[in-house]
Amino acid sequence: MLLLCIETSCDETAAAVVRDGRTVLSSVVASQIDIHAEYGGVVPEIASRKHLESIDFVVEQALNEAGTAIEDMEGIVVTRGPGLIGALLVGVCTAKGLAIGRGIPLVAVNHIEAHLLAILLEQEVAFPFVALVVSGGHTHLYEVRGVGQYRTLGQTIDDAAGEAFDKVGKLMGIPYPGGAHIDRLAGQGNPRAISFPRPLLHDGSLNFSFSGLKTAVMTHLRRHPEYASQALLPDLCASFQEAVCQVLTGKAASALERTGCSRLVVAGGVACNSGLRSAMKNLAEKKGVSVYFPSPGLCADNAAMLGVPGDFYHERGITGLGFDAVPNWPLDTISTELETRP
Ligand code: KG4
Ligand code: ZN
Questions:
Q1: How many CB atoms lie within 10 A of CB 47?
Q2: Is the CB of 307 within 6 Å of ligand 1?
Q3: What is the pTM of this model?
Q4: Are residues 277 and 327 in the same domain?
Q5: pLDDT computed for residue 335 by the predictor
Q6: Are residues 53 and 170 in the same domain?
Q7: Which of 66, 201, 202, 253 is deepest in the core (most CB within 10 A)?
């Protein structure tokens, strides 16, 4: 089964050709980061316009790099949500046009679902597993019992983990998006230099909160402006990153205990973070569980990850043109939607 996948939920215009939901024949990602960096964050209207400019070329390139043509495609897969509505619309309209034009089925996929299943493009992970999705817009813990079977265990009550990295980066004068820069600087700093709070770590819930941690960094910088200097910035980055990683690791450990799962998948852009990767590996060794991270290209936004759920739903005939792009689409509702399908 050859599927063309299209992703435009935020600031990457992406297309991929995936065979049988497992083999990536091509994956093209056109990033808009340089444009949004000027504004210190994603500007939704600019994102939509840039998607519109790039989408045809990106789709064509994905087909070319895979050595295929649109006539070879047996279905189209597209991100329906969650994301920026104007950005999503570009992908959804393009996908509908291609599906109608070619007379092939169209599959609508959830962006978060695609993130947490991306690992299956690289290795087999048996169900059930706990998934921690940490990106610029999401910090969620799920119990995943199969494709389409998700239960939310916890989520952020304010900022997402990636958002916290990016906002703290801004306070430090680091270019947007700050995550990867903070990660690199943290590698040269002392994680115990500053004692930042670990929000909600011991509150008994599986929820997260990062806005207080951002305020703590701001307060620290106000009291100790010398930490913005080249000499001390690595310590600030390392201490902030350590706090985020401890919270994420602690909550993931509680989720594994509560569900009885022995497998943990970490996905989304923040899963690229080297501190998080090593903290999770330590957790795995201590608890005797298995932790899986997709390689960095599959952690960040891409279209190849849509191939996994896309192929599953296509095979079961869960296709159609009668849907709109949606800015919010909680994963739990997918199981119910599938059960109640005629
Ligand atoms: O999944 P993603 O590409 O897009 C969304 O769906 O949001 O995630 C982007 C987020 C940004 O907030 C970025 O700063 C963060 O992932 N990020 C990182 C790292 N690489 C990317 N955060 C921490 N450490 C990194 N190495
Ligand atoms: Zn994403």
A1: 24
A2: no
A3: 0.95
A4: no
A5: 76
A6: no
A7: 66
323 token code pair: 């849907």
Q: Are residues 95 and 169 in the same domain?
A: no
Q: Is residue 183 in contact with ligand 1, taking CB distance under 6 Å?
A: yes
pLDDT at residue number 333: 87
Give the 3-state secondary structure of residue 190: coil
- The CATH number of whichever domain residue 172 belongs to comes to 3.30.420.40
| Shared domain check, 322 and 275 | no
pLDDT in tens, 187-226: 999 999 999 999 999 999 999 999 999 999 999 999 999 9
Positions in the chain short of pLDDT 50 = none
State if residue 209 touches ligand 1 by the CB under 6 angstroms criterion: no
| 259, 168: one domain | yes
- Chain CA centroid to CA 275, Å: 17
Q: Where in the sequence is the domain holding 75, given as residue range(s)?
A: 2-117+299-339
Indicate whether 266 and 305 sit together in one domain. no
DSSP β-bridge partners for residue 2: 19
Query: What is the distance in A from the centroid of ligand 1 to the CA of 41?
Result: 12
The C-alpha atoms of residue 196 and residue 200 are separated, in whole angstroms, by 13
Of 256, 271, 293, which marks where a domain is finished? 293
Strand partners, 266: 132
Shared-domain flag, residues 106 and 153: no
pLDDT at 32: 92
47 membership: H or E segment, kind and range: helix 44-65
